Amino acid sequence: MILVAGATGVLGSEICRLLAEQGKSIKALVRETSDPEKVSQLQNLGAETAIGDLTDRNSLDMACIGVNTVISTVSGIHGRLDGDTIERVDREGQQNLIEAAKAAGVERFIFISFPGGKEGFPLQDAKRSTEQKIKESGMNYTILQPTCFMEVWLSPALGFDAAAGEARIYGSGENRVSWVSYKDVAKFVVAAIDNPAAYDSVIELGGPEALSPLQVVKIFENTTGRKFSLQHVPEEVLMQQKATTTDSRSQSFAGLMLYAAEGSPISMDETLQNFPMQMQSVEDYARETMLKPDKSTAGAV
Prior knowledge:
By secondary structure, the chain is α/β, with parallel strands linked by helices.
């Protein structure tokens, strides 16, 4: 039995869908306040649902009964409910889940993190703390660190509006990023469950090529046949925002934007030898985006 924490999110639900395709037994951790439609979709996949919350240790103890693998995609960065702080969810909550899994005799723990920037910020610090606790837990672990999800960073939610021909560029726009699709990350998660190459490992994930934001704009311009207008947000502005705000979520958003501005090129050569798969390119995503209505993927990270 595989427990998926964050099962109603974009990444978590895609993981559940792929697991169901493989005939795996799934237990989806959902809140009492979760969207009934999303819960119903999980149940239609054949997933058992367990009511729980990372801030409620007792509920996690119950959810982990009969589970041999835990997959956690949860993050409090979006703060959908009051009390969903980074400290409570990404640090304390994940620690609760690790401890509950260990107490229940769970064998495998797969955690979704990200590579992180040069300077720390609350979300990154919480992720690193969780990674360390997983390593010390005694469970067989896989920590996957995908870089920028193209469905999030190349979407209107973060100022990249292909339909309107507008793009917000963080920093110079010249540093390369290995943009990755959340759908490919879900494939890696599922492939990692039984692949010895993933055991007790930290694996950075990127897409098939590293492109600067300005190169990405060119791809979208060629795809749409229109010139984009650009809005540059200097790194100095982001650094000032990060330094002057006292709210951990605002600090983390600024930190994530600085991380994207710094660039995050990741070589996938060795990883794809161990996990052979065809990955979506930015050009693929650009064509796909222009062929269908926009759907929010803000919950993917």
